[in-house]
Design brief:
Length: about 325
């Protein structure tokens, strides 16, 4: 059995399962099931309309994060539906990918809900990837990193093609979902900790839970392909992947400084950069590579804020126990 290039696999026959980790990620996704309309936005609307409730810098930060995430979610959905699904032949992995595609649709709906609730100009939000250099830099980097699998003639037969596929999976899962989202997550949750734009903050918490499961699935997928094809995981290729992740860290740090140059109350922009380095080390170790930065986590509350052992009861606004165990979110 193999996770790719398995001509004996019937994609319609999911039992018996070979990769139980894929099934567990599917269950974790179901346990985090949510839709944005469950989260009340009235307080956010009142804060947004109140000219003194938010600083100009905070409003700018919110615009920038909504602008980046709105286009980034489309990029990730396209990767799943148009590329990754075609090349992963294992049925339980494909079931998870379908679940992930649904979650990306929920995330896209979240930004529609936010724009509608706050009365934002969608043209401004959805064109930021063209007008803001640090957002465009991240998007262009991922598009370039994942272009192999979009070639209609591409297949995963042969060591060179398997390497290309792993390369693109690193670009999609480890870099886009595992690094490029996290400075924005930290910014929005830092606002929420100050009781500012709490509704949007809660939606970002749920998105972060989803993305963390996506990241874990992607890393398990990469590690399984490498375990089944160890000849492709050469020292030169490992160095290439490490260099790509280091470049991604610099792009995310540039975005963090642009989006929040003066920091948020009690947090400066350098701490956001430190956080990016910290999570990059975690991503490197997750796929069997050596960490680069050895930077301490400046935001231990990020893990606490998205711990799956808790769930918001939106109608009573209190915390209740969640139905499944916690995962490692950052």
């Amino acid at each position: 059995m193999s996770i790719i290039n398995n001509s004996k696999t019937d994609p319609n026959k999911i039992l018996p399962m070979t990769y139980l980790w894929a099934r567990q990620h599917y269950k974790d996704g179901v346990a985090n099931n949510w839709v944005p309309e469950e989260i009340p936005m009235q307080d956010d609307i009142e804060q947004w309309k109140n000219t003194t409730a938010l600083t100009d810098e905070e409003r700018r930060l919110i615009y920038w994060n909504l602008g980046f995430f709105s286009t980034a979610e489309s990029l990730t959905a396209n990767n799943i539906v148009l590329a990754v699904y075609n090349h992963v032949t294992n049925p339980e992995c494909r079931q998870y990918l379908l679940r992930q595609a649904f979650e990306e649709a929920i995330h896209t709906d979240t930004f529609i809900y936010c724009c509608d609730s706050l009365g934002l100009d969608p043209e401004q939000i959805y064109t930021m990837y063209q007008s803001i250099p640090s957002i465009r830099g991240k998007d262009d980097f991922v598009v370039e990193l994942t272009k192999s699998v979009f070639d209609p003639t591409f297949n995963t037969v042969g060591d060179g093609n398997i390497q290309s596929f792993v390369h693109d999976l690193v670009g999609y899962y480890v870099i886009m979902e595992g690094i490029f989202f996290y400075a924005g997550f930290a910014m929005m949750l830092a606002l929420k900790r100050q009781r500012k734009m709490v509704g949007i903050g809660e939606q970002f918490e749920y998105i972060m839970r989803d993305e963390s499961i996506h990241l874990n699935f992607g890393c398990d997928l990469i590690n399984t392909i490498v375990a089944e094809n160890p000849q492709v995981w050469t020292p030169a290729f490992q160095e290439e992947v490490t260099v790509l992740i280091k470049k991604a860290v610099e792009l995310e740090k540039a975005y963090a400084k642009d989006a929040c140059p003066d920091g948020i109350l009690g947090i400066n922009s350098q701490q956001f950069c430190d956080y990016v380095e910290h999570i990059a080390d975690r991503r490197l170790e997750r796929i069997g590579l050596k960490k680069v930065y050895d930077t301490e986590n400046p935001f231990p509350w990020m893990s606490q804020a998205t711990d799956l052992s808790k769930e918001k009861n939106f109608f009573e606004t209190r915390v209740t126990e969640y139905q499944t165990g916690g995962l490692d979110w950052d």
